[in-house]
């Protein structure tokens, strides 16, 4: 099966054409209830289909949160599979937020599940956890390269607890988050127009000027909306790297459902705010 064009190139083009917003598909039980849906597979399917139909033709990236589908076992995964395929068919890139991470031999199987082009859950990119050591991700990096897919490595996460691990200082004086960024810069060396190996860096984190965010890859930035960050924070948090930022908004958009027009309008408002913030940088 022929590889896709590298994820970084496809993402850069999508960001240029559609703007950088990533809408998260997070079917929380509380949102299903707010939408008047049952907390069951039918509710999950209706929720996902509504989001995909409302925004997949407009935004650059959709990010389904796998946890909310896994909750329903194999039938939930079937809904996830369909949502990924429909979102991609509508022109959005799909970042599967499954945060996989394990020893290399098991990591290879996770990679097969999400990054092998003919896998049922193939996604344009996958979130991965490097906290079994960056080197444990090698099978995922290799398969992503082979398929034209990408990875987003948890470097500096949006949650307040993340610092306990990510700000831990190594023997060489560099902290763990900075080390992950340095690995990604190596991975993306020479890639044009953008590397395929991105970092997750929370939009909630305030001033990150002590970190080298110039990894020549995308920075997936969750935290806008429900976690308190705003689009206006982006230039301050990301500095010169702001043009490589893919800001994620999940609940901030989803709370406007189930009306597809209201969902689309909410996504458009966030997209406008993000555009204005990036242009002001
Ligand atoms: O550091 C991280 C990494 C991932 N996430 C995920 O992003 C969305 C955020 O949802 P909101 O509703 O916009 O808060 C969710 O799927 C998280 O698991 C993150 O928040 N922070």
UniProtKB/TrEMBL annotation:
Gene, per the UniProt record: pyrF
EC numbers, comma separated: 4.1.1.23
Family to which this protein belongs: Belongs to the OMP decarboxylase family. Type 2 subfamily.
Taxonomic path: Bacteria, Bacillati, Actinomycetota, Actinomycetes, Kitasatosporales
NCBIfam families linked to this entry: pyrF_sub2
GO molecular function terms listed in the Swiss-Prot or TrEMBL record: orotidine-5'-phosphate decarboxylase activity
SMART domains (alphabetical): OMPdecase
Reactions catalysed, as given in the entry: orotidine 5'-phosphate + H(+) = UMP + CO2
The keyword Lyase is assigned to this record: yes
Pathway as given in its UniProt record: Pyrimidine metabolism; UMP biosynthesis via de novo pathway; UMP from orotate: step 2/2
Protein name listed in UniProt: Orotidine 5'-phosphate decarboxylase
UniProt xrefs under InterPro entries: Aldolase_TIM (IPR013785), OMPdecase_AS (IPR018089), OMPdecase_type-2 (IPR011995), OMPdeCOase_dom (IPR001754), RibuloseP-bd_barrel (IPR011060)
Active site per the UniProt annotation: 99 (proton donor)
Orotidine 5'-phosphate decarboxylase domain sequence ranges: 20-266
Gene3D superfamilies linked: Aldolase class I
Keywords in alphabetical order: Decarboxylase, Lyase, Pyrimidine biosynthesis
Organism field: Streptomyces anandii
Top-level taxon: Bacteria
């Amino acid at each position: 099966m022929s590889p896709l064009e590298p994820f970084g190139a496809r993402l850069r083009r999508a960001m240029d054409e559609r703007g950088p917003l990533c809408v998260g598909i997070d079917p929380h039980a509380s949102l299903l209830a707010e939408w008047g849906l049952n907390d069951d597979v039918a509710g999950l399917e209706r929720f996902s289909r509504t989001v995909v139909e409302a925004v997949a033709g407009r935004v650059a990236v959709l990010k389904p949160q796998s946890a909310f589908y896994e909750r329903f076992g194999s039938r939930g995964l079937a809904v996830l599979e369909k949502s990924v395929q429909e979102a991609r068919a509508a022109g959005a890139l799909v970042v599967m937020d499954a945060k996989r991470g394990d020893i290399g031999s098991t990591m290879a199987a996770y990679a097969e599940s999400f990054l092998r082009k003919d896998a049922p859950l193939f996604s344009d990119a996958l979130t991965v956890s490097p906290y079994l050591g960056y080197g444990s991700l090698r099978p995922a990096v290799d398969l992503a390269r082979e398929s034209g897919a990408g990875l987003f490595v948890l470097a500096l996460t949006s949650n307040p607890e993340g610092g306990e691990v990510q700000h831990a200082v190594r023997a060489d004086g560099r902290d763990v988050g900075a080390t992950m960024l340095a690995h990604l810069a190596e991975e993306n060396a020479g890639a044009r127009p953008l590397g395929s190996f991105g970092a997750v860096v929370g939009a909630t984190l305030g001033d990150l000027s002590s970190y080298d965010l110039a990894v020549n890859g995308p920075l997936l930035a969750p935290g806008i909306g429900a976690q308190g960050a705003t689009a206006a924070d982006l230039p301050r948090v990301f500095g010169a790297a702001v043009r490589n930022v893919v800001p994620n908004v999940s609940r901030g958009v989803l709370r406007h459902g189930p009306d597809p027009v209201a969902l689309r309008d909410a996504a458009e408002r966030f997209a406008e705010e993000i555009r204005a913030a990036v242009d002001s940088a």
